[in-house]
Amino acid sequence: MSSPAADRPTLRMVAKEAGVSVATVSYVLSGRHRSHTIKDTTADRVREAASRLGYRRNDAARAIRTGKSDLVLLSLNVLADPWSQAVAATVSTAVTPLGKTALIVADGDWRTLLANRTPDVIFIDSIKPDPSQIAELEAFAAQGVQIVVFSETLEPEGFDVIRSGAEPRCHLAVEHLLEHHDRVGALTSRTIGFARFDAYLNTLRAAGKPIRDEDIEVFEQHPEGAYRAAMALLSRPDRPTAIYCTTDFAAIAAVRAAHRLRIDVPSELAIVGVGNTLEGEHLDPSLSTVGPVEFNDALAQIIVSRLTDREGAPGEVFDFPWQLIVRESSRV
Length: 332
Known about the structure:
Elements: H1 4-7, H2 11-18, H3 22-29, H4 40-53, H5 59-66, E1 71-75, H6 82-95, E2 101-105, H7 110-116, E3 121-124, H8 131-142, E4 147-150, E5 160-163, H9 166-169, H10 171-178, E6 184-188, H11 195-206, E7 216-218, H12 223-234, E8 242-245, H13 248-260, E9 270-274, H14 278-281, E10 288-291, H15 295-306, E11 317-319, E12 323-325
Parallel strand pairs: 1-2, 1-3, 3-4, 4-5, 5-11, 6-7, 6-8, 8-9, 9-10
Antiparallel strand pairs: 10-12
Helix pairs in contact: 2-3, 2-4, 6-15, 10-11, 12-13
């Protein structure tokens, strides 16, 4: 009785079916054919032959043989966030010409991910200050996994660390709103141990403004939850005239809720988000925000640099200070 592996279609079988060499099949199915003199019609014939035979690349075997998986993994905590979507799109665009595939993992469970796959590079957008998690991160890096981590506190230990300076900068958004508004409300995903929300509280206290529970709404971490929270806050008869949102997607939801309630932004309601996402920039009205400038392109370049042979590199810190970006949604 033959084994499943013996029955699996091979590159040689696909080459025979398509009438080309094994090398041509390898180039086409790896996604690298555009960098070689292979006609598109030939590439199409190879893909059709592979489809007819049910051929699938054996990435696990390839990783054992070459040490490369051609995968760039993106561990993103909130995939519905426009920031996450923009990161995924930009990184994918940068690595695809190199024959790499960007694979997105939405739950942020990078430990399980690395235990089962050996990516060429992994980007982790959120890590808890848990000693066991940090120890595992260092262990994976010591094994040669190329890692880029978004963290305000971690030091590089064989992996790269990206810092944004978000915590000391979010107060700029609240200060900007307080210049023309006595009551500034908040849309936040949580209220305890969250630096972005602490910036709201501390800035109001420093300005001598009262903190009203009725001016604060907590949203679930997706656009629909943020929209419901914004509707609840803006439907109150004595609503604030300005809103600070701890993410851009919550601010975008607030703009849409204001449109639904026929509240003009910014003449009747000023809104500022956090993150500087492309979707916020293209919103009508364009969204004021606090965030880094040209971050996504820079991140993609860091990941591309990690795709080169950097085994044993000590890791670096990349600092992207945030700034206030005033656009139409809060402009007087």
